Amino acid sequence: MAAISFVLLPLAFLTLLTPHKAATFTIVNNCSDTLWPAAVPYGGGIHLNSGQTWTFEVPSGTTVGRVWARTGCSFDDSGNGHCETGDCGGKLSCAAYGSPPNTLAEFALNEFSNLDLFDISLVDGYNVGINFSPATASGSCQGQQCAADFVRQCPAALKAPGGCNNPCTVFKTDEYCCYSGSCVPTDYSRFFKNLCPDAYSFPKDDQTDTYSCPAGTDYRVTFCP
Length: 225
Hints:
Blueprint: H1 11-14, E1 23-29, E2 38-40, E3 44-45, E4 53-58, E5 65-68, E6 74-75, E7 81-82, E8 104-108, E9 115-121, E10 130-134, E11 144-146, H2 150-153, E12 159-160, E13 163-164, H3 167-171, H4 174-177, H5 187-195, E14 211-214, E15 219-223
Parallel strand pairs: 1-15
Antiparallel strand pairs: 1-4, 2-3, 2-5, 5-8, 6-7, 8-9, 9-14, 10-11, 10-15, 12-13
């Protein structure tokens, strides 16, 4: 997961971590069109009409997870097909990440200090607006949103059917992809940042875009908030 960094903890410390229940994720399609939301490593994928919800559980301790919307999909009765954005190997139930452009809700559950870490990332571009929030917000446990009109405002070089690509997807250079581990904001990343200040705009975006809640929190991901 591009937006969150993790550290390996000594085994003796890990044994002190308090076990927590699985987190319930509720996915809401608030868009006017049908979506095919996807979630890995748990959840897979589903057909979701406008106004419908999808609920699944993610075990405590899941270190890398993501949820995204797929658009423009067509699947046969066996769950094989293709999506215009977010396609995951032509399968309705995803076991792999989606193809850009797709707006990402990323998370890691019960990490250091018994906290869940989560963020919205535009490192794979943008296809659908998203709100990623705890089911019950309180104190510093708050949500985030990215619902700007990227598709209409997308720079010509980044335009894609159904969405707006991140420059790394298009140019595949160290300047935009941070292959060397050290890179700085660009005009393209600033375009994403200006429209969605709370979202990751490039792989080495600052850590203020990662939010946290106590382990055991349930979450709600709303598309077209």
